[in-house]
Amino acid sequence: MWLQLLIAAVFIAMVVSLAMGAGFLLRDGSSSRRLLVSLKWRIGLACLLMTLIIFGFWSGRLG
């Protein structure tokens, strides 16, 4: 149960990071680094999400 909630929270954080990146792309100038930071967070969250899903299937909690 906790693993599923953690996976959902990480997914929601990824969607929020995606929305923030889109906002930075539309509002900021070309010299802003906030879009790059948002992309780095999204990549990190995606790796965490894949790790949690693999762990869930490996341990039998999601299968």
TrEMBL record:
Statement: the UniProt record of this protein carries the keyword Membrane: yes
Stated name of the protein: DUF2909 domain-containing protein
Highest taxon in the source lineage? Bacteria
Instruction: Give the species.
Output: Vreelandella neptunia
Query: Which terms are listed as keywords in the entry?
Result: Membrane, Transmembrane, Transmembrane helix
Q: Name one Pfam family in it.
A: DUF2909
Q: Could you read off the lineage of the organism from its UniProt record?
A: Bacteria, Pseudomonadati, Pseudomonadota, Gammaproteobacteria, Oceanospirillales
Transmembrane annotation, as ranges = 6-27, 39-58
Keyword hit for Membrane: yes
